[in-house]
Amino acid sequence: MSKDFNYIRGKPVDVHAEFGVDQISQHNYRGRKPLIRPRPDARGVFGGNLAGQALLVAIRSSPPEFKPHSLHSFFVRAANDKTPIAWEVSEVSNGKTFVNRSIKGIQDGQIVYIANISLTKRNSHKEAVRKYEEYYAKIEQRAKESDEDEEEEEDDDAPAPPKPFVFQTPYHE
């Protein structure tokens, strides 16, 4: 019986060994081994494996508290199963709550895959709304109390939390 698939359903796969990457320098990574074609008759390696390695590179090149938020990518040309993919990282931005990475997958001196990946600290819209409402409930309570007693004003200079704003689908909680 010929082997039609490289990964047999139900058989464990050592994901770290198959898809892992090693850091070569601050902005360069390399796949531990060549990626494989999903089927023997496939033109190139499976695109999901490329996307997965690029995502891993973005995670490794970012501070540990940041998690993937979005991924946009282009398959530039077919990658072969002969040599590992080399990954180049460009740090597009490094903010307090978001970091962005541009990742290029290079094989045999040619770009085979490009990804722009955004990572974020856990941003909860629900939590932001809760903090905002708590703060302004405290302000209203103080206003009522100040009518009775205008003596105590120790927290008046505390900064207000930012008003919650959602411009896309909120993070699922």
Automatic annotation (TrEMBL):
InterPro entries attached to this UniProt entry: Acyl_CoA_thio, TesB_ACOT8-like_N
GO molecular function list: fatty acyl-CoA hydrolase activity
Biased composition, class Acidic residues, residue ranges: 146-158
Lineage top rank: taxon: Eukaryota
Pfam family name, one: 4HBT_3
GO CC, alphabetical: peroxisomal matrix
Domain Acyl-CoA thioesterase-like N-terminal HotDog: 42-117
CDD domains given in the database record: Thioesterase_II_repeat2 (cd03445)
BP-aspect Gene Ontology terms: acyl-CoA metabolic process; fatty acid catabolic process
Region spans: Disordered: 140-173
PANTHER family, per database record: ACYL-COA THIOESTERASE, ACYL-COENZYME A THIOESTERASE 8
Name used for this protein in its record: TES1
